Amino acid sequence: MRIHRDIRYLDPADRGATAAIGNFDGVHLGHQAILKVAASAAKAPFGVVTFEPHPREYFSKSDEPFRLMNADAKASRLAKLGVDHLFEVAFKEALAELSPKEFAQHILVDRLGLAHVTVGSDFRFGKDRAGDGDMLKALGEDLGFGVTVSELIETNGIEVSSTRIRQALSDGRPEDAAAMLGHWHRIEGVVVRGDQRGRELGYPTANMMITGLHRPKFGVYAVKVSVLSGENVGDYDGVASLGIRPMFDGDVPNLETYVFDFKGDLYGAQLSVALVGYLRPEEKFESLDELIAQMDADSARAREILA
Q: Counting Cβ atoms within 10 Å, is residue 114 exposed (0-12), middle (13-18) or buried (19+)?
């Protein structure tokens, strides 16, 4: 998949794509349905148009972190779904001020030269979110590109949405989130150096920051671990603690993952950690011996779940 982060200088050979447009945070089943509709209409390279930063980040800078995945994780997931081109449109003041017609003309036609676009029925665009699917169809007729509006999907009678997925994760229900995502919710990032307390306790962990991401319920999880870079690339099982480490008076949320049956160095490696099962909340124990005993129990339970 080719990623285009500066659409001002798009190669002429990359114009004329059929593309799905949206934020695609989480790339959940609803998003995947839109991608399938777009791909079925593709008579040219198949692309996705998305926005960085997420428009909600731009308009509500004081909000709690809400993103289900960062830009790299989103790109990785879209590549797995067969997308040929990812057009990351920079969401800045100039873009936010465009009217729906100006957005269609300047971005979709002049910059990207799209032949056909597919959007969800809840898609809104242009200044003050004034444009919708019907308006986009009318603009497409005037400006020379086709438009398909895809209906939203449901699972078990519930509309699939990033909002509902965030709520499931906040409640400690990763299985319900996965049912709407179509895949396990994953946290991706680079392993950074921590205080190495886990190593001293016999449980060396790979530490990752979760800055800018939605915070699932703090606690201990059974996890699937994919090492994406470095000399230990591969898939592993593990157990992870997500939170602020109350035992050690922490205050910055992070993800600490103990990879089962692993020997090696993961510092600097890119990891993707899938939350599979919620085991328990964070706790502050009376002693390190109690903590180690609980970690033993957590590991045993995680192995059972992942088996």
A: buried
Q: What is the mean pLDDT of residues 242-246?
A: 85
What are the helix and strand counts (H, E) for the chain?
10, 14
256 as an active site residue: the answer is yes
Q: Which of 123, 128, 294 is nearest to 219 (CA)?
A: 294
Q: Residues with Cβ < 8 Å from 304, sequence gap 6 or more?
A: none
Per residue in 181-190, pLDDT (tens digit) is: 999 999 999 9
CATH fold of the domain at 2-152: Rossmann fold (3.40.50)
CATH 3.90.320.10 is the classification of domain 184-306: no
Distance CA 168, CA 178 (A): 9
Exactly one of 57, 154, 175, 256 is catalytic; which is it?
A: 256
Domain ranges within the chain, ordered by starting residue:
2-152, 184-306
Q: Residue 290: helix, strand or coil by DSSP?
A: helix
